[in-house]
Amino acid sequence: MLGGFRDLAHQRFGYEAVSKDGVTVAQTAATAVDPVAKTVTAGDGTKLSYDKLVMAPGVDLNWTALPGYTEAASDRMPHAWKGGAQIALLRRQLEAMDDGGTVGMAVSANPTRCPPGAYERACLIAHYLKTKKPRSKLLLLDAKDQFSMQRLFEQAWNRLYPGIVERVPLSQGGNVTAVDPSTMTLVTDFEKYKVAVANVIPLQKAAAIAARAGVADRTGWCTVEPIAFESTLQKDIHVLGDATLISGVSKSAFVAAEQGKVCAAAIVAKLAGRAPPETQLTNTCYSFVAPGHAIRTTSVFRPEKGQLIEIPGSTSTTALDAEPSVQGHEAREAERWFGTITQEVFG
Amino acid sequence: MANALINAPKTARRGDTIEIKALILHPMETGFRPGTNGTIIPRNIIEKFSARWNGEEIFAMSFSPAIAANPFVSFFTVARESGRVDFLWTGDQDFRVTESVIITVT
Questions:
Q1: Element containing residue A298 per DSSP (H, E)
Q2: Which of A83, A189, A296, A311 has the fewest CB atoms nearer than 10 Å to its CB?
Q3: What's the average model confidence in pLDDT over B65-87?
Q4: Does the CB of A211 have a partner CB in chain B at under 8 Å?
Q5: Is B21's Cβ below 8 Å from some Cβ in A?
Q6: How many helices (H) and strands (E) does chain B have?
Q7: 3-state secondary structure of B13
Q8: Which residue positions in chain A have pLDDT lower than 50?
Q9: Range of the domain at A217
């Protein structure tokens, strides 16, 4: 969407089909969880009791970690990290920017939702600049030295967007330590960068309901066991998706959907008095580097000693220096995967 | 690619407390990790870092294998006189890097 590849409407789904399958859907925020009385309080005050609670809290942005970056600041320097209005805002800012302007991205350290996400975004913005504002630059200030699919992304920047994308890693002083929205300045330990458009992706944590339910630990994230994803802090509460912190597993939609299926199977088995089925968890991340061109990495994990361990040799990634047709193939696979997962989840 | 980055104010008032930041590229290999062929990768760390203002040591620290790659150090000092601050990193495998900045004190 940021790159102008697709509309926001294509990213919107409803729960009608889920309701038709006999699931009672209440589209209201859960405001409290009592893990002792085993109840959930909904936004309208209704209290629901549970035997097993499955939560997918998602992430909240950490508004205290980056000096200057408040919720109000995100009106001028959008994070665009939680969908909807913020992404539309960043898109409008890019469209309004003069040709020749610098777009600054501040990327936080791990753990983060969608580890390749910021770098895919850099490609999408670079594509927009290359096609619409060719005198502009993208400055990516990164609090990390290494990141997911790094060589593939760097190759894409060099090949497709030469002279447009400049990344400053942690070891070159890329860690953004403060922002000033009034002057559109990104501050690192060594420099101050004035930019025309700023996309600030701050540190994240499990959404507030996780802390209220007592399933988030002092890191701000939810630790879970690797088979049914039951919280290590609260019995009978299972936590799925981006809010969980579990060894080397990425916070991706692919993982969240797999966790949902594995968790459901394990809960059904437990309620029936059976042992949970033996499972492994697969993750695939697709990232678009240009319209019709994507890269991919896949890993398989298995439960071991309370963690999910990457099975040696299970990782496969789009070959570096592959012919362009390979990235075209990955892009079609990504589209098909998107169709499949949204069909499975939303009907 | 810069080997070391320094951030110090170009000017300061006499008696001011100023912050100086220094970052250097270095793997800080612990000496405890096996490489891909199974043998231990030899230790390769920075052992000492120091800063001298007009020759007088104003800050020094020893590093250990537990310190992460690309060490970043920030410290405070009092500006007393104009001059040059020299930074020195030394360590295993004859590692030796120097850097300097000029600070004008008014």
A1: strand A293-304
A2: A83
A3: 96
A4: no
A5: yes
A6: 0, 8
A7: coil
A8: none
A9: 35-41+52-61+205-346
